[in-house]
Amino acid sequence: MADERRVIRRGARADGRRHVPLSVALALLIVASLSAFLPVIDGTGWWLGCILVVIAVNGAAAVARVAGLSRLLGSFVGAVTGVFGITAVCGGGTALIGLVPTPATIGHFVELSQSAGESIYRQSIPAQADAGITFLLIFASLMASVTLDLMAAAAGTAAPVGLVALAIVVPPSILLDEVPLIPFAATAIAYLFVLWADRARERARGGLTRMLAVGVVAASVAGIGAAAVPGFYGTNPFIVSAASSTLASGVSPLLHLGEDLQRTGNSVQFRYTTSAEDPERFRLMTLESFDGTTWASAGERSGLFTVNQGTSLVRSDTSDSLRGTLISTTVKIAGLRDRVLPIPDGAIEIHGVEGTWLWDPADETMRSRSDSTVGLNYSVSSIRALPTAEQLRAAGIPDRGIFAAERELPDDIPATITRTLDKVIDGIENPYERAYAIQSFLRDGDFAYSLSAPVSQGYDGDSLGVIATFLERRAGYCVHFAATMATMARMIDLPSRIVLGFLPGEDDADGTHTVRSDDLHAWPELYFEGVGWVPFEPTPGRGGTPSYAPEATSTADAAGPDDLDPRTVERSSAPDASETPDAEAAAPTQREEPEPNLAPAGITFLVLIALLSIPALVRRLRRIRRLRRARSRTDSVTDAWAEIADTARDLGWEHPIGDTPRMLSERIRSRVGGDGEVGDAIDRLVRHVERARFGPQRDTESLEADADARIIIAAIESAASRFERVKKTIWPASVLSRGVQPTANLAR
After folding, report:
1. Of residues 191, 199, 183, 198, the one with CA closest to residue 216
2. Where is the Transglutaminase-like domain (predicted)?
3. Strands 244-245, 336-337: parallel, antiparallel or unpaired by DSSP?
4. Alpha-carbon span 702 to 709, nearest angstrom
């Protein structure tokens, strides 16, 4: 018997060794697919943590199988080891001996998950891998490792693991709007390695050629699917870049601009050099359509021109405002990723843009249907001579027959906006003087620049209702100031639009200017007859006022330094009481650190306990059913013997399918003894089982098979060690293990 058991264990270890290459391949697949996040998440520390957990899961599973455990039990050992690994990396000192999670560890993980969600919302790309995001990624790697091991090793279905890898690779591709070549190629190669490691099963079902065909088709489908995800653009889907998407072209670009401004981090978007002493702003997008709810771009229209290298840019502005000094600007894109190109005002010629770019003379913007700004280096020639106040004062309002979209307003304008405008322009008739009064009111009044107040107080956005609330609360950022002035300009019949773009940025020591994500800005432009579109600056502390509309008073004297520059604004705080006329309405209550919510962790723990108890429950119900049938039906004595055989198997006994009941009874006698009540019960039950199988059935005889089975089962369990009994309860092999049943011919 001992020799037989050694042979069986030797076979189990050999099977475990055959799974080692598969475990290695699965680990490489997860690590390769997670590398797609490297351009999205700054640094590599989080990736190393993921690698540690992946190695722990797959390595422990492989060692367990080599030691002779079943495939499924190996997956369980890998999952437990992975939990120890993530606890060691992210436990924050709350675990026993640094490995075993405690209730405090679960609470810590819940806090990390909550902070990860907030951090993802706040940060721009590439995001900083703080503790929350690191935990989220490592936890995802743990779940992926366990899932792939269960699929490929325990269940024996290796091919579908490519779908899990694809699910990991696609999200970064959506964020970057492109498929990173190196991570994608590494994932595809690792997937082929998985199929190779599982070659024995695949060859049995169609050979090596079929295996390679499946891998190539899966890799091709993954590439096409990733390139077809929403938001993808770019003629080359295999461009590796750490670029970030800055402005969204969705329903509300202004709202997306606000979200970008509220995110932490201040990543470099592009750098430039210019011949101008006072650098210009860069424009990206123009919003001229307003339905009372959302400011939006009119999109592509007739009159667009394909940009050819070195050709002049056609302009719709034929006024004298473009007479001035020629300015040369050279731009090198760093982190900006979009289909709109940042160009300075007054552009007349551009060189170096690769791909198909369209110039809109009306908006003075440049966009592409298929290309992105990633990696572009280009130069722009521009002329921008701003008008004088006298020119604007002498200019009139354009004819009502033109600029219909730039004048459109809904009929139901909130009374707050109307009353405020009436006060601002009271006694002023000249259109320019009215526009100047609106700018001065917003910039030099009691308004404060705040990134947090609109969000915390629930009036973030660009609709008429938001504008009305903003005029009451008097705290907001460039979106609110620009939308308010553009709306008021239309109310006095001046065509208006909002420009999204960048402020000039910071001067570097070498003469280069650096533009960062915090330089994102929105400002209004108003149209004056004979002059053209003229920018104004109503946002306090953001950029300088133009020479034709200077600041009447110093904003620096009227507001604190924290209100002037978003880089110095405390993003999680509201404006001071002095910044608004209604301190109680404008300043939210002091933010308190929320108590950790342990309910999700508790529910998760209960669900896990319930899932782990399912095999034991199934096993218990099977025993009750079998013994009940053995007691009530004399023809069901084999059910009692099947229960004895499964109990022995659950305790780790080997019982080949070819063994007869008498052979198993001899093993029981050698283990528990054959004297007394147990021996009598074994003799009776074996005799009844053999008669039920091979002899005539005696229905009138009371066999009491269930009572004999209970005696034998109790003796078997008493002879087992405590570990074997616990293992039998938690992990019943007769329920979970695959393969032939030890007494398959007996079970019903």
Report:
1. 191
2. 470-540
3. parallel
4. 14
